[in-house]
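Internal QA ticket QA-208
Title: Verify multi-chain structure generation after dependency bump
Assignee: T.L.

Test input:
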Amino acid sequence: MTCISRQRFMKTIAFEIHDMTVAYHRRPVLWDIDFTVPEGKLVGIVGPNGAGKTTLIKAALGLVPLASGKVEIYGKPYVDQRHLVGYVPQRESVDWDFPVTVRDVVLMGTYGRLGWFRRPGRAEREIADRSLEQVDIAALAHRQIRQLSGGQQQRVFLARALAQEAQLYFLDEPFAGVDAATESAIVELLQTLRSGGKTVLVVHHDLQTVREYFDYLVLLNMRLVACGPVESTFTKENLHKTYGGRLTLLDEAAEAMRKQEPLL
Amino acid sequence: MSGLSLSEKVMIGTSLLGGMSGVVGSFAVLRRRALVGDMLSHAALPGVCLAFLVLGNRDLLGLSLGALATGLLAIATVTVIVRWTRTKEDAAIGIVLSTFFGVGVVLLSVIQKPGVSGNKAGLNSYLFGEPANMLTGDLYLLAIVAAVTLLTVALLYKEFQLVSFDADFAQTQGWPTLRLDLAMMAALAVVTIVGLPIVGVILMAAMIILPAATARFWTNRLPVMLLLAGALGVAAGLIGTKLGRDLPAGATIVLTAAAMFVFSLLFAPQRGVVARILAEWNLRQRISREHLLRSLYELGETQLPQVAVLPVEQLQAYRYWKPRSLEKLLQWAVGKDLIKLVDAHAQLTPLGLRRAADLTKVHRLWEMYLMQHADIAADHVDRDADETEHLLPETVLVELEQHLADEGRLPRSLPEVPESPHELEAPRET
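Actual output:
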């Protein structure tokens, strides 16, 4: 299904996917995905387990080859627009026993701009320190990353993405396994980014917080179910199409919608 | 360099090898690719034999190229097996490693037959290593390889660090991760292969893994780890060669590196076994001491401000202490002037009362924190085991106290400080 965006005439398109199909191990996981995201939105990518949410992000970032279709960032292919993109991968994707400090990891965000052979200098260290302050862990800058809690590790990854100084951010399950304080701090930060004109796409699976966190929604289950502003997209009908017969989840969602507020 | 004696040449050669193995091995160990070195070296044997059969002499460069060829073929084979079958990587490495090695041993025995011509002396050193067979030309080759690999690591340090830690992230930034990965693998392969005649195909993997794994015990910083692994490799080469005068030097070098590893495993600060056991023991000790003081406070709490005199039996029943450990604890407290112990009755001294009251307060705040206010600053609670001295950092304690005072559950109190005994200078107007 396609998602024809009326916003096209109103706003710059930050992110656009055309007819994208992705196959893993010769088995398609995403079919004919087609949607656009206007600039300055905080976007939830929502769907059941195995819906291809992470794959969607990885394909957009060129980490997974496309079987067909194309991805555009501010109207150009990703390879020409890398400098506009920041990425927060899933926390478990790296070895946290690796011998680097918190600040070393955040500095990695500046490597893309530095290019070959050049080492981070004072300007880069200032960017890193500022990013650490934004996520409120400046005091931990010289810690080895293994000594951090899950929430703190997530903040480190977020700070690294901030150090990329991007326009468009992709976050893969940033709320998985973090404490409530970190979750609300991250949400607040993402909203600040949006107010600054950045576009943020977040893989998310907690239906109860969708309305509270996001203003734009991509509903996914191997194919695109719906996309658009949360008010018009987060409907019972769309959720039913996304989650199929999984009644418990549906009940939760119905409950959340009936109250028109998160259950928390 | 031809003016050098054989033993000097051997020393230089083995320390060069040790140094570069340590540096290159660090990346392999961190990326969990340590077994690749093992596979490369075992799979190099058939290549060495084939190169000898073709060349008819044991020119190091020629044999090394042969070794490299079969070593890379082995890596490719493993990649294909893992990619296209359901065999897992560890099994695939085991299969390929032993198959190639088997072919190598067969070829070696063919070469030993009288019908095959050429100077076979020294070819056996590829099995177990024999530094004393080193020629001046071999030393040049080692020096060139060491210079090139170390220079590569120095130039591409930032890129190697990034790809080793988070290859996906590196790729989104546009780094050619596959080629950087191949560069690291190539450095590993070249170092492994020039090391073969010195420590042998069977022991070479140890040279790659041991200095790096040892260095990891002593530091949490990658640059320090690289330098340290290099230094440990050099040391293992030098010491091992000295010890190896009358013994197979390849083995003594590896055993020296292994001794360093075992020492670090036991005695390194933080990561070492002894340090961990000590930390554990200290923690338990501290917990039981705190329990003692807190029990004394809680049992006598109703009688305050009178300080209660408590029978030891009551204390024992309160916390189910074993008689012996309670006895030791009480002796400790007496020694520290925290309690008085008369006729199996314990009483807190003024110093003890103060400590006990502080501990109890912190403990109760901690409990309240866990039960109701864990959202205040959960993220600022220090997870570092060594820092549990105070269950909560002071900043969180203060925050919590204020919070409880706001709810009216704790008297809002200023720190109790007596008036200054002397005249204070009036604050100056600025």
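Spot checks passed. The mean pLDDT of chain A is 88.
Status: verified.
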